[in-house]
């Protein structure tokens, strides 16, 4: 059979043709009034994605670059930071902090669980000298979302600075940076923003900027003071064509409306979860989010084989488990430029694969549950 490819992984995600075409325009010099005008307009409108009035900084890097920028601009070596570790990306915050000699007060959460606001509150009380808190809104490795809004209430009117990794969460999980009082948001281009990999983002509250101004951590490329100096002009060569793409992406998101984008992710997440339940598969997360659905691999099945067959035979790229979850879970994303039919396609390919591996199902069981969910949600049928 002809095999079409579908990316149903939590990054990179599918890129719409209109965004690819926007990037295919001629590269112009970055130190020109013409490019500066595009940069200005694009970064101004990017505030919408974060629901903030603060400036949006862009880095030519993947999402991890923005994470490193958050650590090195807010923390000094030797200082204490509170770090929530509930999966691979929480671990990344810890590893970056470790690399710079920052003392980590770790809130270790079992993978698949979400940190509670009470846990954070307790640690804040035990360590009053730790002012910066690093969290992961959507822990992509486990498919878990935290209650960021309630956590922000703990820090909003204090001198604590709340940092959130929104690399996968942005646009898939509701986020109102200013209204909720989140201080620092980092993200990347290849997830909800529907672009190829290569651009990272950061937004900071005034409270967070006070730390940046007096920060003494060794750094150069990611020193935010350089980025702010001639803003929106970039201190180094910006990713000119990716800025064109970002401009187009924001236009498309504005056209759909951010509330509708959030709602689409919720509905596709719900349809995917219901499909898994109908197939007698167990969700891995205790608090599943709308970025990616993590599913336990049934005992009788080789999880790595499942991910390989669904990709190589059916053209549907899903993700396996990371770290100690390798082979134990698989993850089906519903992130970015994904419609209900992409989700249905992924579920049907999963059913074929499960069936091929000897898992007893009646074909169509998961697809039907997903379709019924879509009908119940009022988007189809
Ligand atoms: C994808 C992702 C990242 C960053 O990964 P990069 O490969 O550096 O872009 C960070 N955090 C989370 C939660 C992610 O999903």
UniProtKB/TrEMBL annotation:
UniProt cofactor(s): pyridoxal 5'-phosphate
Keyword annotations from UniProtKB, A to Z: Aminotransferase, Pyridoxal phosphate, Transferase
InterPro entries in UniProt: Aminotrans_V_dom (IPR000192), Aminotrans_V_PyrdxlP_BS (IPR020578), PyrdxlP-dep_Trfase (IPR015424), PyrdxlP-dep_Trfase_major (IPR015421), PyrdxlP-dep_Trfase_small (IPR015422), SP_NH2Trfase/AEP_transaminase (IPR024169)
Keyword Transferase appears in the UniProt entry: yes
Domain Aminotransferase class V: 25-322
Binding site for substrate: 331
Gene Ontology BP terms: glycine biosynthetic process, by transamination of glyoxylate
N6-(pyridoxal phosphate)lysine PTM sites in chain numbering: 191
GO terms of molecular function: alanine-glyoxylate transaminase activity; L-serine-pyruvate transaminase activity
Gene3D superfamilies: Aspartate Aminotransferase, domain 1, Type I PLP-dependent aspartate aminotransferase-like (Major domain)
PROSITE patterns named among the record's database cross-references: AA_TRANSFER_CLASS_5
One Pfam family hit: Aminotran_5
Family: Belongs to the class-V pyridoxal-phosphate-dependent aminotransferase family.
Protein name, per record: Aminotransferase class V
Organism (species): Pseudothermotoga lettingae (strain ATCC BAA-301 / DSM 14385 / NBRC 107922 / TMO) (Thermotoga lettingae)
